[in-house]
Amino acid sequence: MPTAHINHLFQTDLDFQKFLNHIPMGVFVTDREKRIICVNHGFEALTGFSSDQALGLPCRDILRSRQCMLHCPVKKAMETGESQSIETDIISRDRQRIPVRITAAPLCDSHGKTRGFLETLEDLRPLKQLGEKQNKAFSFSSLIGRSPQMEKIFQILPVLAQSDASVLITGETGTGKDLVAEALHQSSERARGPFVKVNCGALPETLLESELFGHMKGAFTGAQENKPGRFRLAHGGTLFLTEIGDLPLSLQVKLLTFLDDRIIFPLGSTRGFPANVRIVAATHRNLENMVREKTFRQDLLFRLNVARVHLPPLREREDDVRLLLDHFLTTFNRQLKKSIRGYAPEALGILLAYSFEGNVRELRNIVEYAMNVCAGSTINTCHLPAYLTCTVSGQETTQDKKPSVMLHQGNPEASWNTVERQMILNALIQAGGRKSKAATLLGWGRSTLWRKIKQYGIDA
């Protein structure tokens, strides 16, 4: 990309590209034919397209907005000579639909002739999530729950969001670590800046270093262009390092160096770049054990673990399963344009007794599957995945091997309170009256079982 300058504004020319990169939102410049001729780091982070991939292409091919053909702001700006704004969605390179505000302003020469257009992309997700949050109980951003464990997390997240301290998020696979990281970013003062995610276990060490820290042209074979790296793309925002336990030791040293001096050095460069980036890391591994095994640096753990958020597994979150089942029912009704009212008592009993080893992600996938195959107004047992209800080739499934509470076949219109009371009685009978074992059979915590025994007036 040719070097561009701003002339005659000061006594010396300004580097136009550096000027754009400091703007905390996506910015790009097009010519009169709407071909992209310049983008900033905010644009790259939001769309997922690098400058090399975007330059020369029509902006509609990169933004892929449904409004590009109908209400193009560039076309209106060309007709009126004034800036134009629209709210729409774009599709990022990784196929995420992102709500944005696009503003286009004409760039005119000294004779008043339009030579191109300066366009901005403002990420509207923080505003939309704030509106959704005000209409949701038992939630923080995209996180849902009303168990005591989740309430504690909801109380601490707003405090952590206002800090720039590094945060380490731990928990089993599927508990929602990505959602916590994004919630911290969207609730912070960095919300207008980029949120850049890197999976430390998805790339080999040689590629991961270039992906994180960038490289200079000629730094290694195949490096034909300068690459900014994810740290630089996240400048002014948050860098989320998921699966941090998979980060190679050599890169752990380089990450530790950044956390000490806040300067990144791209491969092949001796000139550092001061990156204003908040680090949020996540892992399902036990980093303390890895430190003892000398596969993770203790000093890096200290620097990342300034604040820790631990997400409990779903099986320990007491009443959250029912809340999440209803939440995803509403979500998929809207997405699939269906009007399924709820779960049949037998199906609900199976779901509430299941241990969800895959946590919230597994629960979500189960509801999505059931919603897709259900043609009626109620999800029945036949709509649940086979591994929840069936045996395969005479062998017990994983769920069949677990203790379970069988429901008596009865009136399908019976209320859930009747079904739940019967489940508790069956569990107490199977457990010989031992409440701790009955709670395990039901997949509940002891406090939940005690509360429901009192609620239903069970003499136990």
Automatic annotation (TrEMBL):
<dbReference type="GO" id="GO:0006355">
    <property type="term" value="P:regulation of DNA-templated transcription"/>
</dbReference>
<dbReference type="GO" id="GO:0005524">
    <property type="term" value="F:ATP binding"/>
</dbReference>
<protein>
    <submittedName>
        <fullName>PAS domain-containing protein</fullName>
    </submittedName>
</protein>
<keyword id="KW-0804">Transcription</keyword>
<keyword id="KW-0547">Nucleotide-binding</keyword>
<dbReference type="GO" id="GO:0043565">
    <property type="term" value="F:sequence-specific DNA binding"/>
</dbReference>
<dbReference type="Pfam" id="PF00158">
    <property type="entry name" value="Sigma54_activat"/>
</dbReference>
<dbReference type="InterPro" id="IPR035965">
    <property type="entry name" value="PAS-like_dom_sf"/>
</dbReference>
<feature type="domain" description="PAC">
    <location>
        <begin position="84"/>
        <end position="136"/>
    </location>
</feature>
<dbReference type="Pfam" id="PF02954">
    <property type="entry name" value="HTH_8"/>
</dbReference>
<keyword id="KW-0805">Transcription regulation</keyword>
<dbReference type="InterPro" id="IPR002197">
    <property type="entry name" value="HTH_Fis"/>
</dbReference>
<dbReference type="InterPro" id="IPR002078">
    <property type="entry name" value="Sigma_54_int"/>
</dbReference>
<feature type="domain" description="Sigma-54 factor interaction">
    <location>
        <begin position="143"/>
        <end position="372"/>
    </location>
</feature>
<dbReference type="InterPro" id="IPR058031">
    <property type="entry name" value="AAA_lid_NorR"/>
</dbReference>
<dbReference type="InterPro" id="IPR003593">
    <property type="entry name" value="AAA+_ATPase"/>
</dbReference>
<dbReference type="InterPro" id="IPR025662">
    <property type="entry name" value="Sigma_54_int_dom_ATP-bd_1"/>
</dbReference>
<dbReference type="InterPro" id="IPR009057">
    <property type="entry name" value="Homeodomain-like_sf"/>
</dbReference>
<dbReference type="Pfam" id="PF25601">
    <property type="entry name" value="AAA_lid_14"/>
</dbReference>
<keyword id="KW-0067">ATP-binding</keyword>
<dbReference type="InterPro" id="IPR000700">
    <property type="entry name" value="PAS-assoc_C"/>
</dbReference>
<feature type="domain" description="PAS">
    <location>
        <begin position="12"/>
        <end position="56"/>
    </location>
</feature>
<dbReference type="Pfam" id="PF08448">
    <property type="entry name" value="PAS_4"/>
</dbReference>
<dbReference type="InterPro" id="IPR000014">
    <property type="entry name" value="PAS"/>
</dbReference>
<dbReference type="InterPro" id="IPR013656">
    <property type="entry name" value="PAS_4"/>
</dbReference>
<dbReference type="InterPro" id="IPR027417">
    <property type="entry name" value="P-loop_NTPase"/>
</dbReference>
